[in-house]
Write a structure and sequence with these properties.
This protein has about 150 residues and is an all-alpha fold. Helix content is about 75%, strand content about 0%. The protein folds into two domains: about 120 residues, Tetratricopeptide repeat domain (Serine Threonine Protein Phosphatase 5, Tetratricopeptide repeat), CATH 1.25.40; about 35 residues, no CATH class. It is elongated and about 60 Å long.
Amino acid sequence: MIDTEAFREFKQALTFLRDNYPVKALPHMRRAVELDNHNPYYRSYLGVVLARAERKWAEAEELCDNAVRMKRNQAQLYLNLAEVYLVAGRRTDAAETLAAGLKFARRDVRLSLALNRLAERRKPVFSFLDRRHPVNRQLGRIRHRTLQYLGVA
């Protein structure tokens, strides 16, 4: 009975979170964690909700980090911790978290996609041409290979 009630609260909180209402999601997520404190997903999402709703970075980071330690091979927990870091303005920590997640949850494409979104791109070779222009693409590849060869990239 407790598990189903906790899951119901969790689902309600996720609905609010998905609709971008973290303040409304907070009491539901707290209730889910109270009912099932050993569920890493509940703890991790509580961290995300705390970060987005109340800006309690340290507490949110601790909840998400503990959840990752409970289940290292679950990609969603790394994504949640990275989201907490992003909301807190810590891009490099988010990127490091996603990279660490790739070591433990290799098959999950979401980690790679999230890490690629965080990567900073170089400016196009010719700024007056579109990034997707064939000349910019070809020269960009040449620049990338040259920088790799020189050990700069």
